[in-house]
């Protein structure tokens, strides 16, 4: 059976947003590596000298939403989703990371890696121009980026969490940069995915700046006022120009997005975290795309429980769960099924097989029988016999705390209980406030727990094997496999190491994966966009939008 990463495409959409839809709130023989197959918010107007006009007689405009009063407009800052999406139209990454996790050329055109996997020679694309009068990209701009990111706090800088991989870096010439890694790790590519910006403009600006952003992207920021951003097509862009000559990004408050509000009609692209995006309609807006977020929902089994300590029981629970139904009922379609904490869109899943997370009630029953748990037909529950001949039934308390933004967890737990009852497992729901919930997790005072984790983009979620290993699962082998996956840098190495990591994870099942949460991009009916859009980077392939 194929891995279940694309369980749910909840596309039966009739769309209308509610008031909160706007609340969306990184030996030295050189061998060439071929990139993987894919290629102060002021009321005063800030302006840049625009690139030469393309001479278009009639402008084609795209209207989008933006965050009202964003905390920063610096491309390297930790940004909310709408602001990050907006800035992705203005800037470009040094190295692209696509929605499926593949690395490919960006402003950096090519690179070589030494045989020991530690030294990287990056070649910058020629004649990539910054907006305005800031010249072309050189190695000085990239060295500035590395120095600034390395000295920044990860709480403020999106890319600083990867900076520990840096050992040294030096300019070879204006278009060549050599970087030495502290250890073999593909984190170097995640670090080098930073947006390329001009040193001469940003050198004196902090990560909290709200000055007009400047980059090399398909659009330059013509103005930013209280009315929002006006972006114009960058005639000097090194790639083929997008079909839109202008993009208007307007800030919208929740009060303006009431049901029936005419404010909705001004937008051709709406981005929302609301699960109800699937359930409402707006005239002319009938195309929905799911964006996989880093939020991973799972069940954490406590290994101190005599039943959950058995691998067959953990696998039976996973196999008895119909994730498609869970997502449909509890999340209203806003999720993508997953059985482990790596983005289900990750390219290296392709070709891997699994039975642990594929819904199969018959297989779940077989596993429970093999675990020595007979079915009491009268009670409808599985059991084992105590020494005195009495029956000890398969019952678990499921601990959860409700989500403060959108109350979906109770419905999710209820549906889980309903599904597990079909294979003879009884679930009692235990709701706790956030503080009590965390206390129970940290003390191990639970049997099963519904947990949400904000996972890392690079798939390195070792925190689940250390401070957040609430279930006390044995993780030595998993840690070794994850280390190997982290250290893989070529496509062959990644595929092999990831396969071994998946196999080890699904053999142990330290968490019973449910899904990754998704957000929704709602498009006008006449817009055609790529089917998969990236988190905080939905406009990465704006050149393909029609």
Briefly say what this structure is:
By secondary structure, the protein is α+β, with helices and mostly antiparallel strands.
How is this structure best described in words?
α6 runs antiparallel to α8. This protein has helices at 81-87, 139-150, 187-191, 199-202, 311-320, 323-330, 361-370, 409-421, 434-443, 476-486, 491-508; strands spanning 30-33, 61-66, 95-97, 103-105, 108-114, 119-124, 166-173, 176-181, 219-225, 228-233, 246-251, 269-272, 285-301, 335-337, 374-376, 381-385, 391-393, 395-400, 426-431, 448-454, 512-524. By secondary structure, the protein is α+β, with helices and mostly antiparallel strands. Strands 12, 13, 14, 18, 19, 20 and 21 form a seven-stranded mixed sheet that branches. It has a five-stranded antiparallel sheet with strand order 1-5-6-8-7, with helices on one face. Strands 2-11-10-9 form a four-stranded mixed sheet, covered by helices on one side. It is built from eleven helices and 21 strands. β18 (395-400), α8 (409-421) and β19 form a beta-alpha-beta unit. The longest helix has 18 residues, at 491-508. The relative contact order is 0.17.
């Amino acid at each position: 059976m194929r891995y279940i990463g694309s369980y749910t495409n909840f596309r039966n959409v009739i769309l209308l947003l509610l008031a909160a839809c706007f609340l969306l709130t990184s030996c030295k023989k050189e061998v060439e590596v071929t990139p993987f197959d894919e290629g102060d918010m002021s009321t005063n107007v800030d302006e840049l000298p625009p690139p030469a006009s393309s001479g278009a007689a009639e402008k084609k405009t795209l209207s989008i939403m933006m965050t009202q009063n964003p905390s920063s407009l610096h491309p390297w800052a930790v940004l909310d989703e709408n602001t990050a999406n907006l800035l992705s139209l203005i800037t470009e990454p040094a190295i692209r990371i696509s929605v499926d996790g593949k690395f490919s050329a960006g402003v950096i055109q090519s690179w070589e890696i030494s045989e020991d996997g530690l030294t990287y020679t990056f070649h910058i694309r020629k004649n990539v121009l910054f907006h305005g009068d800031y010249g072309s990209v050189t190695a000085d701009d990239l060295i500035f980026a590395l120095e600034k990111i390395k000295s920044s706090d990860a709480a403020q800088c999106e890319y600083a969490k990867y900076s520990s991989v840096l050992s040294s870096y030096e300019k070879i010439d204006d278009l060549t940069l050599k970087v030495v890694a502290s250890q073999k790790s593909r984190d170097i590519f995640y670090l080098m995915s930073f947006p390329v910006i001009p040193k001469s403009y940003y050198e004196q600006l902090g990560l909290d700046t709200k000055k007009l952003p400047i980059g090399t992207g398909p659009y330059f920021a013509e103005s930013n006022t209280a009315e929002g951003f006006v972006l114009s097509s960058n005639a000097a862009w090194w790639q083929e120009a997008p079909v839109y000559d202008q993009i208007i990004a307007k800030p919208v408050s929740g009060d303006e997005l009431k049901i029936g509000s005419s404010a909705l009609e001004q937008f051709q692209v709406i981005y929302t975290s609301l699960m109800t995006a699937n359930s409402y309609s707006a005239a002319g807006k009938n195309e929905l795309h799911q964006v996989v977020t880093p939020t991973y929902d799972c069940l954490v089994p406590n290994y101190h429980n005599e039943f959950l300590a058995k691998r067959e029981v953990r696998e039976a629970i996973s196999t008895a769960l119909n994730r498609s139904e869970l997502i449909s009922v509890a999340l209203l379609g806003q999720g993508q099924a997953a059985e482990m904490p790596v983005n289900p869109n990750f390219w290296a899943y392709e070709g891997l097989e699994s039975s642990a997370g594929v819904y199969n009630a018959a297989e779940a029953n077989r596993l429970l029988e093999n675990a020595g748990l007979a079915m009491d037909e009268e009670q409808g529950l599985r059991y084992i016999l105590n020494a005195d001949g009495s029956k000890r039934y398969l019952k678990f308390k499921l601990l959860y705390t409700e989500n403060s933004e959108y109350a979906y967890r109770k419905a999710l737990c209820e549906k889980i209980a309903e599904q597990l009852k079909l294979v003879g497992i009884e679930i009692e729901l235990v709701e706790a406030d956030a503080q009590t919930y965390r206390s129970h997790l940290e003390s191990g005072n639970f049997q099963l727990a519904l947990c949400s984790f904000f996972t890392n983009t690079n798939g390195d979620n070792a925190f689940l094997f250390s401070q957040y290993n609430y279930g006390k699962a044995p993780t030595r082998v998993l840690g070794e496999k994850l280390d190997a996956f982290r250290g893989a840098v070529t496509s062959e190495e990644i595929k092999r190491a990831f396969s071994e990591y998946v196999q080890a994870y699904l053999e142990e099942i330290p968490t019973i994966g449910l899904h990754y949460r998704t957000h929704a991009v709602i498009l006008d009916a006449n817009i055609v966009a790529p089917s998969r859009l990236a988190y905080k980077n939905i406009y990465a392939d704006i050149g393909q939008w029609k």
